[in-house]
Design brief:
- The protein has a three-stranded mixed β-sheet.
- By secondary structure, the protein is mostly helical.
- Helices cover about 80% and strands about 10% of the residues.
- Strand 2 and strand 3 form a beta hairpin.
């Protein structure tokens, strides 16, 4: 038993160690670290390790290792156990498919976030350009039009042109987004 304690202490040196009381208040941070940074956590109670929080890929590897050891043991015991066991290639395929599914889900999340950021940046750029257009157009129209044109009429003309500009830019952005989606769709569908 003392030998097991030494092994556990050696193993947990490679992990982030957190008391369970602290882990309860920071579970979302721990989950993010595990999911996105592949960190591994060991949880302790009264200073003793009792649980681990690990990435799904570690769990899949452990599952496959257990399945492989079960397969080896069943071969030693005999064919009666082997007939009831799950074939290793099926387990590996299931683990790989699950991992691919997880990666696909993360890619979709990243793509959605990226799309949101791009839309925000694009909207900001359009508004900056629209503001610049309004200023320039107001100035040039004031210089070019006869002096008897009312200021309100000038403002309406400028607002009309700026609105048309915004609409054209939004339509252009939608077309570009649709085209990009069509180009990336085969990547996401595999």
């Amino acid at each position: 038993m003392a030998n097991d304690a030494v092994k556990i202490d050696e193993i947990i040196n490679d992990y982030e160690v957190r008391p369970i009381a602290e882990a309860r208040t920071t579970i979302s941070t721990i989950a993010d670290d595990v999911a996105h940074r592949s960190l591994r956590y060991v949880l302790t109670r009264h200073g003793k390790a009792f649980a681990a929080v690990v990435p799904i890929s570690d769990l899949v590897q452990l599952h496959l290792k257990d399945a492989h050891e079960f397969e080896a043991m069943s071969q030693k015991i005999g064919s009666s156990v082997q007939e009831r066991s799950i074939p290793i290639p099926a387990l590996k395929k299931a683990g790989v498919d699950r991992e691919i599914s997880n990666i696909d889900s993360r890619l979709v999340e990243v793509a959605a976030k990226m799309q949101g950021v791009l839309e925000a940046v694009y909207t900001e750029m359009v508004e900056e350009q629209a503001s610049e257009l309004k200023t320039t157009l107001s100035k040039r129209l004031a210089e070019a039009l006869p002096k008897n044109v009312e200021r309100g009429e000038l403002d309406r003309m400028v607002a009309f042109e700026v609105d048309n500009f915004r609409k054209r830019m939004i339509d252009h952005e939608r077309e570009a987004t649709d085209q990009a989606s069509a180009e990336w769709e085969p990547v996401f569908r595999g």
